[in-house]
Design a protein that fits this description.
This protein has five helices and 16 strands. It is of the alpha/beta class.
């Protein structure tokens, strides 16, 4: 274990970020490329140690990590005004961040993860993979190939306007979504591809079944790398 200073971490490839959710992450982790860096958010290191995986770095206030492997850099960040997920997101620059272990477990932790998606200071995509769903935070236009008849929820992360969409059962044309007013739960794909043309706004989330992870990952890595 080696302590490192608070600093920005820049990566040319996507980064895998592992949190401390009690839900299993082995399947999702094994499906991701082996050459992507793996960073543990505090207690997420325990989940990795249990899978005999060593992270490239551990970031957090270290209030929940019980295993700190030898030789792994540790960025200790005090403070309770932001979560360990926010601490990581605010220090990682990468074309894509894929988070495991942030959507299941305690409901307040899930809400905290959604809050982190709403306060990101950049426009790059962030994907969270859970036990039953996959969530991607987006800004701007989005296109992906998918299986017709798949659940495709669209949620505003603040206020988000849309110009038009194609490939959805209920189009987004001209909609202005805002939490507490208009949201897009349980929309559905009705073609082999979905296209969203976004207008001005704070960003939005696409939420699909976990079975759509590969299709969503293909769409956002093609667009972001």
């Amino acid at each position: 274990m080696t302590d490192v200073d608070d600093q920005m971490l820049a990566y040319a490839t996507p980064v895998i970020l592992v949190g401390a959710s009690p839900m299993p992450i082995a399947g999702a982790l094994d499906a991701l490329p082996d050459n992507w860096p793996v960073i543990a958010a505090d207690g997420g290191v325990d989940a990795l140690v249990a899978l005999r995986r060593q992270p490239d770095m551990i970031i957090g206030d270290m209030d929940s990590a019980t295993h700190l492997p030898d030789g792994v850099p540790v960025m200790r960040l005090a403070g309770q005004d932001d979560t360990d997920l926010e601490k990581c997101l605010n220090r990682i620059t990468a074309p894509l961040i894929v988070g495991l272990g942030f959507l299941e477990g305690r409901l307040d932790h899930t809400f905290a993860a959604l809050h982190a998606m709403m306060t990101l200071p950049h426009d790059r995509p962030v994907m969270l993979i859970g036990d039953s769903d996959v969530f991607v935070r987006l800004q701007g236009d989005f296109t992906m190939h998918c299986t017709p008849g798949t659940r495709f929820s669209v949620w505003p992360l603040g206020c988000q306007a849309f110009r038009r969409s194609a490939g959805l059962k209920w189009p987004l044309d001209g909609l202005v979504m805002r939490a507490g007013e208009i949201i897009g739960t349980s929309n559905e794909t009705d073609g082999a591809a979905v296209t969203i043309e976004a207008d001005a706004g704070d960003g939005y989330a696409v939420i699909m079944p976990r079975s759509a992870t590969a299709d969503m990952l293909a769409a956002i890595t093609t667009a972001s790398i």
